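Hi V.,

You were right to ask for the full record rather than a summary. Here it is.
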Amino acid sequence: MLIDYIIRRLIFAVPVLLGVSLITFILLNVVPGDPVVEMLGKHADPAAVEKIRNQLGLNDPLYIQFGRFLWNACRGDLGKSFKTGQPVTKMILDTFPTTVKLALSSAFVAIVVGLTVGIISAVKQYSFFDHASMIVALAGISAPIFWVAVVGQLIFGLHLKWLPISGYSTPKHIILPAVVLGIRFAASIARYTRSTFLDVIRQDYIRTARAKGLAERAVIFGHALKNALIPVVTVIGMQISGLLTGSILTETIFAIPGLGRLSLWALSNRDFPLVQGIVLFTAVIFVIGNLIVDISYAFLDPRVRLQ
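Predicted structure:
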């Protein structure tokens, strides 16, 4: 049953990945500029430019270029970088582990802080903690990441000198970027958790549990929390998928050699194969993330399993 569901979802993901690849390919080709000129410089010999364009297959019709990319991608070959000549797959896999460490660290901060604040705010609705935490959460969602990152560097790096402000050589370097990236998502999780938790604790079965004399902790963690987490899991799953695909601003500001920084470098240098490979890889991560979220529903809510 579960295997059939996974297979169906993977089949449905094929047109999604195909559409993402096609849109990316079109956008890259309608943007003004020539990637070969970017490689050789504006004063390059036109004959040399034309020769390299032929070698790279850029003079072929667009449908042939796109078909060649899809055929190679199906075999796990995303091509070679125009700028470095290295295989795109290798460049992505070399930087992705760094992004995974940053994403998991940020997700840990976001989930722990977000769930804790959201549950306490719901249980103590309209208290000072509730109002204060929701104001802080709104500020966390609204504040741009680059601004939070710079403020964090100034306070904790330059003035207090507790943490390094850039680089990626020790575990200590990951703390500040993880907190900066995690705070924004923690704010979203806190607001969703509070909202769903308030809906759940007003249900009849919660009143029945309290009427039976169960302790408040048993009511909250034994009855309310599991059902309240179902919509929150969707938010968490999507956010973790987004974190795994790399945060361009965070990795650039803190000089972290991850997938986000590689994406910015590829876009700046008009490295078509690298951009296409990163976008396709990102789409696959989102598909897998959504699939994991859907499967987790069956473990949180038996009704989903019956359906």
